[in-house]
TrEMBL record:
InterPro entries: AcrB_DN_DC_subdom, Acrflvin-R. The keyword Transmembrane applies. One of its GO terms (molecular function) is xenobiotic transmembrane transporter activity. One of its GO terms (cellular component) is plasma membrane. The chain crosses the membrane at residues 7-26, 38-63, 107-124, 438-457, 464-484, 490-514. The keyword Transmembrane applies. This is Multidrug efflux system protein. Keywords: Membrane, Transmembrane, Transmembrane helix.
Amino acid sequence: MSQIQGALVGIAMVLSAVFIPMAFFGGSTGAIYRQFSITIVSAMALSVLVALILTPALCATLLKPVSAEHHENKGRIFGWFNTTFDHSVNHYTNSVGKILGSTGRYLLIYALIVAGMVVLFLRLPSSFLPEEDQGVFLTMIQLPAGATQERTQKVLDQVTDYYLKNEKANVESVFTVNGFSFSGQAQNAGMAFVSLKPWEERSGDENSAEAVIHRAKMELGKIRDGFVIPFNMPAIVELGTATGFDFELIDQAGLGHDALTQARNQLLGMAAQHPASLVSVRPNGLEDTAQFKLEVDQEKAQALGVSLSDINQTISTALGGTYVNDFIDRGRVKKVYVQADAKFRMLPEDVDKLYVRSANGEMVPFSAFTTSHWVYGSPRLERYNGLPSMEIQGEAAPGTSSGDAMALMENLASKLPAGIGYDWTGMSYQERLSGNQAPALVAISFVVVFLCLAALYESWSIPVSVMLVVPLGIVGVLLAATLFNQKNDVYFMVGLLTTIGLSAKNAILIVEFAKDLMEKEGKRCC
């Protein structure tokens, strides 16, 4: 135990030093890291306790002394294994001796490996979280401004028919909503919630949610009456409404709604010129449309004894309806709503015929204190960080990482007129945040591991010899990720940090025995 006790303590310190800093990162990225950090550190601490306390007792009970000829009398398989293993050890020992005789050459090779590691890391496509098949996805429908609900319903019926007929092998059910979508509430908007069959009934990549969505984009994109955009749900639903990127275009100079709309259309036009990198780039909002504006002369209303709250309540009740109470009819509870009859709320002039009760109890017509006219504007005005903004959503094209797509959007946005800025929100903001945190996370892990080893061995040179092994493990991770087209996301960073800890663990075992051997021979090792 005296030979490996120090190594076990060193391994525990190194693995803790690698994963504990992850628990102190903020945001949603920190919340994900924290789960891995606490789990791995707890498991590692328990395993070290078992190795220091229970394993020696079990070894003393189960392992018995054997004679020197015990291994030589093994059968054919075990004898072949022992012989091969001894040859491998001798070959490794001779190779290490040759390397020590040509340190300059191999230090140059090591430097090239480190340089290759940096190049591989920089070229690895970035992402936040991989897309997942959650058994459900969404389809957004938006028709031109002013389209009626009847037109919207026809498009929703087309979408439903496509999923239930063309994708009947994968789709379980379709639920549609007319008049609502994530872009806002309007009669030209709609949503379809598509539920897929259980995963065991959809074996094969061609039956995955991603494949179904891809085919739906190709077919539903042929509908000419409006935009139909299927999209997957984000891996963490609290961070957005759809996969892809969330881009906020911001009016930073107070240029006005029209200038912001022109900049948005210009950006959408530039994005459409890059179909190999960007797909489904769309505004997540409602287009400008004709609106009926009712202006209240507050001085006249006050003179007539009519309050603004009563005016608003009257319009809301007459046009939209107001819940009153419940009543029981033949054993069933029914709701009571108050609303103007349909024929008295169909025309703009009908508003002037509404009456509101004044403070002295008289009924005053709306025409006495209001004027009305038609205007053209946005039914949904957005603000981001207190500034007028418009949200744009989109996805990276197949074969393009989300990080590359976001970089392209930033490049296109830089070409917009002065005074128009941008920012990221939702999962895109978290991806940018995690990308900025990744170098700091790796650097902190390296520094803390080095300091822990320096404190353990009371030396500055021994930790260096341990840390020199880490880049070799990182190169292996990067090569595997590159060969299998993996991305630099949150899970990749967890695996990378695990590799750092395991590489240092193996080096600690070798360095610990080498240190003890040199001390027994009376040589200084630090």
